[in-house]
Design goal:
Elements (H helix, E strand, L loop, with lengths): L2 H4 L10 E3 L3 E3 L6 H6 L20 E2 L6 E5 L2 E5 L16 E5 L2 E4 L5 H5 L22 H15 L3 E4 L3 H8 L14 H4 L31 E7 L22 E5 L15 E5 L7 E2 L3 E4 L16
Parallel strand pairs: 9-12
Antiparallel strand pairs: 1-2, 3-4, 4-7, 5-6, 7-13, 8-13, 9-10, 10-11
């Protein structure tokens, strides 16, 4: 099984025990308190001046994050055995349905992060329009929590589920290998054209939903825990409906150091929730109000 080396996944000897993300027990070596103390207090003073309207795309005035409306639907998730670069955890292909949601049009940038947190943790701190990286799955909750506090139930912000991510990458579930219909050199920043670094967001072609960099630039955290055999046990219910406390979190999309096989829409990767990498960031999803969250637990609160 070559899952780790193929996806450039760096495993660390860290035990993370969480019960629904409500209470976590971390060994002293994790230094989570130190990590949080490095973050300045979030900026929550700026008022909302554009309310989310279901069916329409909109831009948050504080961060500048543009949220694209994605109409829900059902699609065949995963890839069949004959697909090039396909790996065992991408099958079997199965029908999944997702509800309407918003998804940020690009990976959260360094400038958008710094509008909330006054520190830039990126390994490539090149400018506001470059993708944020070197952030953990837990760090990714910080921006969503800040927006939840500001919008007060008008929308619920979180990481996308794996199903939401793949559905959007494939332009609403079409049979696409990559996030768009152009040749890969013009569609993604990856090993063949990235010059071994991140590149400015939204400088490759978007897909037909108006989403940039879903293939390449940096991997993206999702809400789901990673299980290599999860597709064997899944019906039409989308992943992420019922969260678990798995130590490994699913990542999607590939990054600047991956080849064509790593930046496919159906490709899956994984990392521990506390890991930070120079090729791993995130984008945010949002749903209307609170009802669609179902049995998802409350995300971690900032401990200060």
């Amino acid at each position: 099984m070559n899952m780790i080396s193929d996806r450039r996944t760096r495993m660390i000897p860290l035990a993370l025990t969480c019960a629904g993300m409500m209470a976590c027990s971390l060994p002293a070596s994790a230094h989570m308190i130190d990590e949080w103390e490095r973050l300045d207090s979030p900026n929550t003073e700026k008022k909302v001046d554009e309310a989310p309207v279901p069916g329409k795309s909109w831009t948050d005035s504080l961060t500048g994050i543009r949220f694209v409306w994605i109409p829900g639907g059902c699609f065949a998730m995963g890839s069949p055995p004959w697909k090039e670069y396909r790996e065992n955890d991408e099958g079997p292909v199965h029908q999944v349905c997702v509800s309407d949601y918003w998804l940020s049009d690009r990976e959260v940038t360094q400038g958008q992060w710094q509008a909330v947190m006054r520190i830039n943790p990126s390994a490539f701190p090149k400018g506001d329009n470059y993708p944020l990286e070197q952030v953990s799955w837990i760090d990714a909750e910080v921006v969503g929590n800040n927006l939840n506090a500001r919008f007060q139930g008008q929308a619920r912000f979180r990481l996308p589920t794996e199903a939401e991510w793949e559905y959007a990458c494939r332009e609403g579930g079409d049979d696409l290998n990559y996030a768009g219909r152009a040749d890969l050199l013009h569609q993604a920043w990856y090993a063949d054209n990235s010059h071994r670094s991140t590149q400015p967001t939204a400088t490759r072609k978007p897909n037909r939903l108006g989403l940039y960099d879903m293939s390449g630039n940096v991997w993206e955290w999702t809400a789901d825990s990673y299980h290599p055999d999860s597709y064997h046990h899944r019906g039409r219910k989308p992943p992420g409906t019922e969260m678990d406390d798995g130590q490994l979190k699913a990542i999607r999309g590939g990054g600047w150091k991956d080849g064509p096989g790593g930046v496919r829409c159906a490709g899956r990767g994984f990392e521990r929730a506390t890991v930070k990498r120079s090729d791993l960031g995130f984008r945010l999803a949002a749903v209307v109000g609170m009802a669609q969250e179902g049995k998802r637990p409350q995300p971690l609160a900032i401990p200060f």
